[in-house]
Each structure stands twice: as C-alpha cells, then as structure tokens.
Amino acid sequence: MRRLQLEVFNKYEQHWTIWTYKDVGVQGLIVPKEDCEYLKRIKPILKLKEKLGLDSWTSRGHGLLAIETAKMIELIAQTVAEELKDYSLDYTSLTRTLGDRTICGAISNFLTPLYALQFADMTAEEIEKMHHLAFEFSNCVKRTYLIEVLKEAMRR
Which DSSP state fits 61? Predict the structure, then answer.
C-alpha cells in the first residue's frame, strides 16, 4: 500500500514526506520496543483509541465512532432528502468534520486524564527516565519495511 501511494505521488510530481521519525508504532520509522515500560503502561489507552477509532487518520473509518457517525450522517441525509427532496449537500465533508474533527477530538481530550492516570504511581523523574529509555535511539526498533520503501522512493 505504501509503495503504491508513493508511486502515485511521484507520478504526479507531488511532494511527500514522513510525518514523524519516532512514534509509538503508527507511522514512525523508529519505534520503542514493545516490551518497554512506556508502551506497557499506555497499552490500554492505545487499545481504546483503536477500538473507538479516535485517530481517524489511522483508523480510516473503521473505528466504532466513525461507524456510528456515518450512521448519524446517513440519517440526516435521508431526512433532508425526504423532507426537502434535496440531494446536493456534501455529506462526506460533514462526516469528516463532525467525526474526525469534532467527535474524535472532543473524546480524545475527554480521555486525557485516563492517559495521565497510567503514570499516577510515578514521580516526574521516573516518568522522564521511562520516556528517555523508551525513545532513546539505541533502545528503539527500526521499521525496516517502511525504511526500505522510503529509500526506494528517494532513489527515483
């Protein structure tokens, strides 16, 4: 999939870049090891975010919130069509705005205290050390597949 995406970008001479160098395993070229303390602690939050589809740019409409938002938008579209006999509104845009920007953003913010609670038993110094250990380059894993895709794309 990634190769095909870069081929399209290159074919139409569109610029592209990686979004992030390091992250928790979503898009980064370098990620913390799965058994590091930080990922162990945030695993319940990551699972919840995935199930709900809070990061719409990675869930691609497959999370619970995206599915339910789409149902709500379909109800709106159907009601407008029946009442006004109008089919011209951009419901895709409404779905994106309502789901991605409003619902997912609001719920993500609402859940922030639960993320913080994963570290409630730690001091600030312990948290800092944990992050350092998790994200220090020598403690991370290279996502070689993604690196090779990008190297190949850069050779063109």
Answer: T
Q: Which 8-state DSSP code applies to residue 34?
A: T
DSSP of 66-134: HHHHHHHHHHHHHHHHHHH----S-HHHHHIIIIIIIIHHHHHHHHHHHHHHTTTTS-HHHHHHHHHHH
Q: How many structural domains are present in the chain?
A: 1
pLDDT in tens, 129-152: 999 999 999 999 998 888 888 888
Other C-beta atoms lying within 10 Å of the C-beta of residue 65: 19
Rounded CA separation 26/146 (Å): 11
Range of the domain at 91: 2-155
Contact 143, 28 (CB under 8 A): yes
Give 156's pLDDT tier (boundaries 50, 70, 90): low
* pTM for the model: 0.74
